[in-house]
Amino acid sequence: MPIDQEPDPTPPSETATQPPPGEAFRLLVEAVQDYAIFLLGPDGHVRTWNPGAERAKGYAASEIIGQHFSAFYTPEEREAGRPQWLLGRAAAEGRVEDEGWRVRKDGTRFWADVILTALRDANGALYGFAKITRDLTERKRAEEQQRDLIVEQRARAAAEQALMVRDRFLSVASHELKTPVATLQLSAESLLRARELGRLDDARLETGLHRILKSTGRLGALVSELLDVSLLSVERDRPVRQPTDIVALVQEVTARFADVVENESRVAVQAPERAVVMADASRLDQVFTNLIDNALKYSPPGEPIEVRVADEPDSVTVTVADRGIGLDAATQARLFEAFSRGDNATHVPGLGLGLFITHQIVERHGGRIEAQPAPGGVGSVFRVSLPKDAM
Known about the structure:
Elements: H1 21-31, E1 35-40, H2 51-57, H3 61-64, H4 75-80, H5 82-93, E2 95-103, E3 109-120, E4 126-135, H6 137-196, H7 202-232, E5 242-245, H8 246-258, E6 267-270, E7 276-279, H9 281-297, E8 305-311, E9 315-321, H10 329-333, H11 354-364, E10 368-373, E11 380-387
Parallel strand pairs: 6-8
Antiparallel strand pairs: 1-4, 2-3, 3-4, 5-7, 8-9, 9-11, 10-11
Helix pairs in contact: 6-7, 7-11, 8-9, 9-11
């Protein structure tokens, strides 16, 4: 061999004649182990079978060729006619893809991704179907494990949040309940001691009884808030909707406050003659009472509270504006959370449930409530929007 002639790199054993295309395709299909690849006749009976199909479904070729492919489906899907439906879809559309449980020869199930393709001859006549199946059981199991993990993590986070809320409640409730209980005890002991010493005159009795009434009133308000939260957490506690004039309701609430504030005109109302929504009047009474009471508690004595009612095409909006301590960003972000007590409001007694209850009631009416600092940074503005139509 001349020096400049390169040797043939192909070993002699690999220079055999290549198989024809049809035979090469058959060899390719038979070499595939991870996919079940086989042919069905027009009626769905198995015509060919590859090693991947035997591995996935457990049938030897001699056991399954000639059988109907519905043998791979669950009894429920066979009864529902799904195999025939898939053949019809593939014949009509040329191809159909499906995922679901399939059954092996031994009765065990596996999750399969299936592609069914209609095969037609040169004249368009249906020759049969090519079916490719891949076992995705491991992938599905991993996905389910991941979903279970996410559910578990969410449940754990919810439990931790519930513990935080409980601890916050115990801290706030113990602090808030301690004061009126202590006042009740001291007032009662003072009256008993005065009686023992013969000093219980009418003036001292009246003063002591007023202190007791004030403390019991505060305790009653705290218990009432807790009961409201409990009721709102029960699914059956739904608003009983009926036509409700928001203007009349706001004016009624405002009139009640006129009896207890130092200036009867301190709470000013601007409103049209009527503004009607479908709502639970008793619950909305609670909303406006909470908002006006909140505005009065957080405002300096004598500062006015402005209440506006706007009758809009699809809703009625009530705005309560005060000139109190205002809202910082941290307080605004958690304002409607249960037991939320803003850092700028530690001097005001309460459990921090009023705005939470208000938010829950408004949402159950399909409405919206928001709060923001008043223009100029002095005070706060609360806005409640209620739809006119029943939910």
